[in-house]
Amino acid sequence: MRTARQVMTTVRSLAHRLVHVDEVTQRVESATTSLQRTVDALRVEHAALQHRLDAVERSAAARDRQGARAVSALHDTVNLVARRGAFRHDVTRVVLLVHHVEAWDSLDDLVRLMEMSDDFDPVIVTIPRHFGGQGELRDEDLVHEGLLARGVAHLRATADRVDDVLRLVKLLEPDVVIRQSQWDQDVDPLLSTALLGFARLCVVPYETMNLVVNVPDPRTPAVNTAVDADLHRAAWLVFCTNEQTRDAAARDGVRGADRYRVTGHPKLDVLRTARPSWPVVERESRRPRVVWSSHHSIGGGWTRFGLFPELAEDMLEWARQGDAEIVWMPHPALVPYMAREGSRYTASQYEDWLARWSELGNTGVVQGGGYASVLAAADVMVTDGLSMLAEFQVLNKPVVFVERDGHRPFTDLGERIAAGTHVVHDTAGAREVVERVLREGDELAPVQERNVAELFGPPGAAGRILDVLRAEIAAERAGHRVPEAVVEPGLG
């Protein structure tokens, strides 16, 4: 047994330890309080520093904006001086920047007329693209091959040979520059509207007419980009198909419609005169010929017309039954869209579908433009929009519009065009209409005829554009502007 002395010694030892623990606890509490005060002080200092940093960033951003505006103003001044040197020679050099070979028919007649003229020298430059600014610039080789197949002479601005495409364009010393699209984001930033202002800019639209209320730019939501994008504002001349487009520019454009000229559209003349050519090999008994056009806007943004994911399998099943020949014509931006992250129809799904589609003997695919001959050979169009709603009507053949719920609203012009189409909502509805109109005739033919007569303009658009250019160039040389009535023969 432990003695009383031993017990007391143990108690004293425990008491001493408890006193030590209490001292340590007090020191820890004191250190914690001090640390908390330091942390609080650091938080206050951090907040103050963040406030000063935000102020510096705001000031820097303001200086950047001021600097950007100053650079922009300098560009504008230099470009204004440069433009005044245009048309010094008897021959006008026109540089055409081509990234959208699928829409080459909008320029083909105009270029050929220029090539046959003594007073114009057209120079075509193929450039890469990225529709909507998505991904790397690409596909110049496709543009090159497309023009090569058409026998169109051109220069190539490939990334591995030309590191400054703007400098190349300047070295060509153009009087006039025509870029295919009003969308700056589709092409190299060096070919933006602001940087091309050293020459006279002309707009020959790749589309025949705008049918929808365009998606607004969040920075400038009131701008109607169909008639008042940066390229329209900076343009010397804008050529349009009909009076309705010029009226929209007069109503919505910051500069009004003073430089808009109604000429009709060269692409419509290509469609009018195309020789039929059908990519499906004929058999003894002729089957109905259906051309199926798919828009690229299959996502939740932009115009939201595209229905390829919903229609693909049903259209494949229709083709499998062998009662019709179906040629698929995708918008050039559709397949690239499928490669985007978040696309509701993936590239691998597309490759699988395309393999099954291509195995059939009564199907075909048209890509890379040059589709006028296919439309001329087709009996009927099935489409989810947009351009084909209008373009196929020039041939006065039935158009079946597979309409997607919630798409961007039509303009008044779009409503008139849509009135010439049969509206359905799925493949079954489309097939039913196709079979009926091919059997009984198209009751909407008179509506289409009225649309073509009132909205498309007469044949000869490229010649009228050239007449406008000649008159305006002569006026520039003489130092005055040409009255519009003089430069729009037959299209008042």
Describe this structure as you would to a colleague:
- Helices cover 47% and strands 12% of the residues.
- It is of the alpha/beta class.
- Mean pLDDT is 87; it is low at 485-492.
- The protein has helices at 4-83, 108-115, 140-149, 165-171, 225-228, 230-234, 243-252, 266-273, 308-320, 334-338, 347-359, 372-377, 387-391, 412-418, 427-440, 445-456, 461-478, 484-487; strands spanning 92-98, 120-126, 155-156, 176-179, 200-203, 237-240, 260-262, 289-294, 325-330, 363-365, 380-383, 399-402, 422-424.
- The protein has a 7-stranded parallel sheet, sandwiched between helices.
- It folds into 2 domains: 85-265 and 459-487, Glycogen Phosphorylase B (Rossmann fold, 3-Layer(aba) Sandwich), CATH 3.40.50.2000; 283-456, 3-Layer(aba) Sandwich (Rossmann fold), CATH 3.40.50.
- The radius of gyration is 33 Å and the shape is globular.
- Strand 8, helix 9 and strand 9 (325-330) form a beta-alpha-beta unit.
- InterPro entries: TagF_C.
- This is UDP-N-acetyl glucosamine 2-epimerase.
- It comes from Cellulosimicrobium composti.
Quick description:
This is UDP-N-acetyl glucosamine 2-epimerase. The protein is an alpha/beta fold and 492 residues long. It has 18 helices and 13 strands.
Structural class label: alpha/beta
- Proportion of residues in extended strands: 5-15%
Q: Residue share in helices?
A: 40-55%
Tell me, what's the shape?
globular
CATH uppermost class of the largest domain: Alpha Beta
Number of helices: 18
**What's the N-to-C terminus distance?**
126 Å
Find the CATH topology of the largest domain. Answer: Rossmann fold
Biggest β-sheet description? 7 strands, parallel
Protein name: UDP-N-acetyl glucosamine 2-epimerase
